[in-house]
Each structure stands twice: as C-alpha cells, then as structure tokens.
Amino acid sequence: MWWGSSRTDRRGSLLMDFFSQYSLEILNEGDVPTFETFRGGQHLTSHIDVTVCSAFLLNSIRRWMVCRHTTALSDHNPISFEVVYGGANDVFIGTRIYNTIKADWTKFEGLVQERIARVGTNIVFNLLSGRRELDESVSCLMGRLSVICKDSIPIRSKKGPYRSSPWWTEELNALKRETIKAKHRLQNSSAIRRELVTLPLYLELKAKYREAIRVAKVDGWKKFCGAQTRETAWSTIYKILSKGPRRAPPSTMKDGDVNLQSVEETVNCLMSRFFPDDTLQDDTDFHRGLRESFFQLPDVQDDPPFTYSEVRECLSGFDSGKSPGDDHFTSDICLRFFLADSKTVLAMYNACLRVRHFPKVWKTARVLVIPKPGKTDYSDVSAYRPIGLLSVFGKVYEKLIIGRLSWHLHSKGLL
C-alpha cells in the first residue's frame, strides 16, 4: 500500500522491511499501475515496479510519474523522474553554450557590420602601440562579439539534443504511434469490445511493430558494416566507446593515505597538484635564464603582417565540434566573424604581432577535472588530471606564429 497498490502481501512486507533496514525512500506516487496486460479477456494491472533512493538523494528527485501511454511493446509502463544535480543552484560547467546549428548567420553578419566594422574597430588596432592598450581593445572586442552572439544565436539546452538510433525511420515512428493508439483504445474499451475488436487489433499491430524494428535493426547493421573500410572500421568503434558515461569525481577525496574532510580541502589539493606555486626559490640556473630572457626582446626586423589567406587557413583548420574556451566562441563562430569583418580580425592579429604580446583574455582557461583511464581507485586525487579549454582566437594566434616559425626554420635549412 506504500506505493499505490491496493493490498499488501508477504513479499511486499519483506520488501518494506528491506527498505527500512537500509534507509531507502520510496518515490512512487499516485495509483497509476506500473504494469498492465490482458489475459483471458481481462485487464490485469499491478504496481510491481518500485523506485527507491537514499535519504541523501530524496530532495534531488523531482516529477516522478508513470508514463502510461508512451510505450507500445512492453507491458511495463515507463517511469520517469528528474534528478537535480547540485539542488537549486546547479551550475552549467560546459563552455559550448551557443547552438550554432540554429544560428541566424545573416543577422549575425549584419550585427558585426553595424557594431564592429562600421565603427572603425580595425583603425583602433592599427594605431595602438602598447600592451595595455592591446589587452583592453581585444577584451572590448570579445565583449562586443559576445553580445552579438547572444542576439543572433540561440542558447543550447543543458540537456543536449536527443539523438535517435541510426536505424530508426519515420515509418517506425508512424507504426509506433499507431500501436500506442491501439493500446490506449484497448485500455479504455468495454469487456465485449475488448475481446472482439480492440485486443486482436492491438496484438496484430504489436507483432507488426516488433517485426519492423527487428528488420530495421538488421538492415541498419548490414548498412553500417558495408560502409566500413580498413581505415574506418576501428575508428568508428572507438568513437562509440568513447561516448560512454563520464565518471564524475567525488566531492571529497584522499591524497595518498590522508582523507580530505571537505570540498574546499579537495579543491585546494587538486589545485596545488595541478598548478604548483611558481616560486623563484625553486628555480634552477636554467629556469632563471628563461625568466631573464623573457624580458629581453630580440632586436630583429619585424615580420611582415599576417595575410588574409593565413588567417583563413588557420580558422578553417579547426573542428567546430571541439569545446571552446571560456569566451564560448566555437571555431565556426570565429570563422563567421572573420568572413563578416576580416579587416578587424587581421588588424587584431597584426597588432599582437607588432606589439609582441599575447592578450590576457586569451590566456584564461576553463579547467575541467577528468579521470585518468585504467585507474582502480578514483577516490584518490592522483587518479585525475586537468584539461584546460582555451579561446579559439588565442589558438589561431598560436597557429599563425607556429606557421611563421616553421617557414623560417625550413627556409634556413634548420629543420
């Protein structure tokens, strides 16, 4: 009776004792049956499916419900509920916030022309000569571009897009809807009509739907196997396996034999391990020489300015599916910005080259903690490593510099 059933038997009492012993909370609400079938012309129902959780998670569970009219093949009705991670103050930690698939690129290009190109932003970059001026100008430009993106590109849902199976077809979708309608009519029909009309129709459609799914799966697998080559056979498998569930680090961990007592201790331990303090006292002679040489700019002739083709080639080489930096600009956004106002982007990169400076805003990274593969104990801080997500604009600048260095070394016969 604790989860919607109208009676309690011996097995139910034993189950309740088990829940009580291990402090488990029942999530079932209401009296909608979780199991329905038709045998001998009778509509049989049960509340056999029970959802439980620990007391710690109880306040994080929302909207538990039995979805009675969403399945066509199983006699068990689906159960749905929401898990709220972090409670009401849950924070989205991803950097890909813009849904560029649904972007209004025409509006984006028009706003770039209106708010950046026509106000002479490229002239500002051509005239500046100091590092502080460059930092401020690049930061201001990134801010304007962020506002333009918010005005022309929709924000992605935190849940992410739903992707159906590759073998799923619109015909299967239509057959599924038809079978669900037949099941709904069966559940609501009288005993006489159920026996003569609705039950035979539902069983016929159910068998047809199950067979159509089987055929679609087999055909889809044959098509997948036939499309593979010697080069792509294993890469596809690795790609599928790499999309498994991510292991989230626990809120408190241990450092060797020392158990960390709070989230703050865990974060500080990870920070000190990933980013140790850079102190002059620990420098070797080699490191001291590097520090001194950093402030000694070479007295050489300046490189010629970056060209349109150089920047275009660098931007086109980035994968738009990769996670962006903390500015949220994916490579396709950066490329569209360049195509809409190449003068400003060229002036920005050439100002960086002329002033010999890497803007601070591109040095800011979103650091994520990910597990190392193959570890046996993921409660230890040594089982994790950091990954830093940097701005695509900064990566393009690095790539431009590397291209110039590579050309210089090859032309001098040094490589």
Written description of the protein model:
There is one protein chain. By secondary structure, this protein is mainly alpha-helical. 47% of the residues lie in helices and 10% in strands. The chain has 13 helices and 10 strands. The strands form 5 sheets. A two-stranded antiparallel ribbon has the order 1-4. A hairpin with a 2-residue loop joins strand 2 and strand 3 (42-46). Helix 11 packs across helix 12 (342-355). Mean pLDDT is 85; it is low at 87-91.
Would you kindly provide a brief summary of this structure?
By secondary structure, this protein is mainly alpha-helical. The chain contains 13 helices and ten strands.
Write the topology of this structure.
Blueprint: H1 10-21, E1 24-26, E2 35-39, E3 42-46, E4 52-54, E5 61-66, E6 79-83, H2 105-117, H3 121-127, H4 131-152, H5 170-188, H6 191-227, H7 233-241, E7 254-255, E8 258-259, H8 263-274, H9 285-294, H10 308-316, H11 331-340, H12 342-355, E9 366-371, E10 384-389, H13 392-411
Antiparallel strand pairs: 1-4, 2-3, 5-6, 7-8, 9-10
Task: Characterize the overall form.
Answer: elongated
Spatial strand sequence of the major β-sheet: 1-4
Beta-strand portion reads: 5-15%
For the secondary structure, the number of strands is 10
Query: What does the average pLDDT come to?
Result: 85
Number of helices: 13
Proportion of residues in helical segments: 40-55%
Element-by-element helix/strand order: HEEEEEEHHHHHHEEHHHHHEEH
Ends apart, CA distance between termini:
79 Å
Radius of gyration: 30 Å
